[in-house]
Amino acid sequence: MPIPDFDQKLNRYADIIARVGLNLQPGQWLFINAPLQAAPLVHQIAAIAYQIGCRYVDMLWRDEQLELVRYQHAPADSFTEYPIYRAEGIIQHLREDGAYLSITGDDPDIFKDQNPEPIATARKTALTHLKPVYDLLDRSGFNWAVVSYPTLPWAKAVFPQAGPDESAEQLWESIFRVCRIDQPDPVAAWQQHIADLQRRAAYLTRKQYHALHYTAPGTDLTLGLAEQHIWHAGSTITTSGTPFTANLPTEEVFTLPHRQRIDGVVSASMPLNYNGNLIEGFSLTFKDGRVTSAQAKRGQEVLDKMLAMDEGMTSLGEAALVPHSSPVAQSGILFFNTLLDENAACHIALGGGINYCTQDGETISEEEYAARGGNSSLNHVDFMIGSGEMDIDGILPGGTREPVMRSGEWAF
Q1: Is the pTM of this model over 0.85?
Q2: CA 218 to CA 119: how far, in whole Å?
Q3: How far is CA 310 from CA 128, 299, 307, 316, in A?
Q4: pLDDT under 70 in the chain at which residues?
């Protein structure tokens, strides 16, 4: 089969976003949040959405340079302000059975020279206003997806030795490859991949491990799992019955930790791009489910501000397993983008947990969710801890240990 040219690949990418990621349904509205540079992809997705039968495609364009100007020049006391109409519009859209697409691609280092205090304040303000959106998301209330678009600043960060055009081309080809665009039938390839991931998830759910024990260079962590936890992978189903794949690409199998049963030390195996700043070479120490020490070689102040957002940010809301043989890991590329990097390595997330990762989580009360061990926070930040040197044991309620991963690969 001849290799499609770029326009054909972009159309294929838009097609799997619409049909596999979002799984758009006739009659839906679609809301897209994207950087300005992503307009060519947005236009393709909109065309496919209308072909599927969507009634309306709405947009919120994002301009990271305008955000930078704000941090450079806005009044110091203005970062607690937020356009309420924006949050209310998104919430109304989702409550009326709308779909939501977020396209990432920002410069991973754009705010490196800025004071982290206003950035942290603005982030908390936005998350506070958007909390109803994330509450609905955690209860599978709508179909959504996160994908990426190679902007030039991001491409230059990933491939600093290449020229501007070459770096963008390399990043595009990398994303097309890990998103299976190079397969003869990308939609069928995704369907098979999702089925494989879901078999792993079903096996782990049946096991009902009491805890996982992670060991790797710089890591010796025992992570308790929530009561009645469920492992998910690939596709999720909304409460109205629509299956969707929230992340493209996705290589993870994930579940809900117990916020009070996390002990030991864990070291990040990749840098974390957080709010336009890089946090590198960091490790966290946990005692009884809470971070008691956090050390970073770069970005210590940003890390501290992130942990201080609210009480829930000092515990964990997700545990995700990814084999070292995943296509993203085997690419050998550090993407400086959590969507991609989290699919290269096992990872955990500080902050709020995912309600649907526990039995009947879409309908149980917040009190029952907490009683099972679920963590709550305004924020949810994944960071990578896995490598080809990581071993993971599953610990059964009686204390028996079973291998889950060895040298970064599945052991079952």
Answers
A1: yes
A2: 30
A3: 11, 19, 7, 13
A4: 1-4
